[in-house]
Structure of GABA(C) receptor:
Amino acid sequence: MILASQLVLFTCIWITSMPNAFAASEIKKLPQRCSSSRKPTRKQGTRMRKDDSTKVWPLKYKQLFHIEDHDFATRPGFGGSPVPVGIDVQVESIDSISEVNMDFTMTFYLRHYWKDERLSFPSTTNRSMTFDHRLIKKIWVPDIFFVHSKRSFIHDTTMENIMLRVHPDGNVLFSLRITVSAMCFMDFGRFPLDTQNCSLELESYAYNEEDLMLYWKHGNKSLNTDEHISLSQFFVEEFSASSGFAFYSSTGWYNRLFINFVLRRHIFFFMLQTYFPAVLMVMLSWVSFWIDRRAVPARVSLGITTVLTMATIVSGVSASMPQVSYVKAVDVYLWVSSLFVFLSVIEYAAVNYLTTVEEQHRFEKTGKVSGMYNIDAVQAMAFDGCYQDSETDVDQTSFSLHSEEDSVPGRCTGSPSADSSHTKRRKSLGGDVGKAILENNHVIDTYARILFPIVYIIFNLFYWGIYV
C-alpha cells in the first residue's frame, strides 16, 4: 500500500516538471538558431566588401606609397641637392595668332619627369602604376607656370586630362593637356612681309635653382609637333627648344625653358586685298593724262575717285592692325601709291591753270578767244568727230550757244569729210578725236604719261628688293 502511494506521488511530480524542462530546452535552442542565421550574413558582407575594390583601394595606395608616413608638402630630398625635373612637350596645335592683341594660343601636352623615393614600392613584376588627377593632391608635384601668359586652362572633358605614372623605384611621370594664351612681342616693321619669332616660357614659381633644376628631358628632341599644324596666315618654319636663367631681385635665380617657333606670313592674301588694288588705282589715275584737258568734269571726277579709293584701302589696313608708333612696310607702299594718285590730281590742276594763263595771254595779244572757251567746238568734237582749230576767230562778246543748224557747218568747215556720208564720218571719229587730243594736249600731260609710270616702276623695284 505504501509502495503504491509513493508511485503515484512520483508520477505527479514528473508530469508537473516536464513542460518546464521542455520550455527551457526551447529557450536554449532559440539563440542557437538566431546565431546560425546571422553567420551567413556576416560572411556575405565580408565577401561583398572584398569584391568592392573601390572601397578598399584608397587604403591600398595610401599604404603602398606610405602617404601618411611622409610630408609631401616638401620637395624630394629637401635640404640637399636640387631635385632635377625633366620636361617634354608635344605640341598639338597653334590655335590662333592675333596681331592686334600681340598674343598666340597653343594647345600641347606637358610632361614632367622626376624621382621621389618616398613613392617607391615593392613590385615583383617591376611594372608601373598609373593614376588620374585624384592622386595629384596627395603628393608633391612641380609648380610649373608660364611666363607672360594671359590665360590658360587644363582640359577637363570628360575628366581632367591629367595622368600620373609611378614606377617601383620612385620615378614619376606627370602629364597634362593644357591650352595657353601668351604674349608674343611682334615687330611689324616689315608687315605683311614679316617673320615673327614667338616663344612660350616655362619656369618654377616657388623653387629657385637651389631647390629645383628644370631641363629638357631629351635635349633638342624634347619638343615634338604634329605634322598637320597649319595656320591661315602663317607658315610654321621652325620649332626649337632652349633653356636659360631668370633673375628676380627678391628671390634669386630660376631655371627657365623656352619653346621657340618661327612664323612666316602668307603674302598672297595681302597681294589680292591690298597691293593689287593699290596698283590698279595708281594706273587708273594715269588715264586722266590721256583725256583732253577741256574735259574738266571727267578728269576731276576720275582723280577724286581714285584718291578716295586709296584712302579707303589705307583705312581698311590700319583698322586690322595694332596702333604702333612706327612705319610698316605696307604703310610705305600705300602712302607712296596715294601720293602718285594725289599728284595726278595736282598735275591736272597745273595743266588747267597754265592753260587758262595761256588763253589770257593769247586774248591780250589777238583780242580773240581760243578754242578753250569755244563751247561749240567742244560739242562738235564730242558728237560729230570734227574739231575747230583753236585759232578760229570767235567774238569775245558772243559766248551764247549757236543753234544746231548754224554751228554744225561752222565746225566742219574745211574738213576733208564735210561732204562725206555719216558712215564715213563715224569711221574717222576716232582718228579725229585722237588727233585733236594730241594737238591740243598740254606739254605737262605729255611728260606725265612717261614720267609717272617710270617713277612708279622704279619705286616698286626698290620696294620689293628691300622687303622681300
Observations:
- The mean pLDDT is 78.
- The CA atoms of residues 289 and 446 lie 8 Å apart.
- The chain has ten helices and twelve strands.
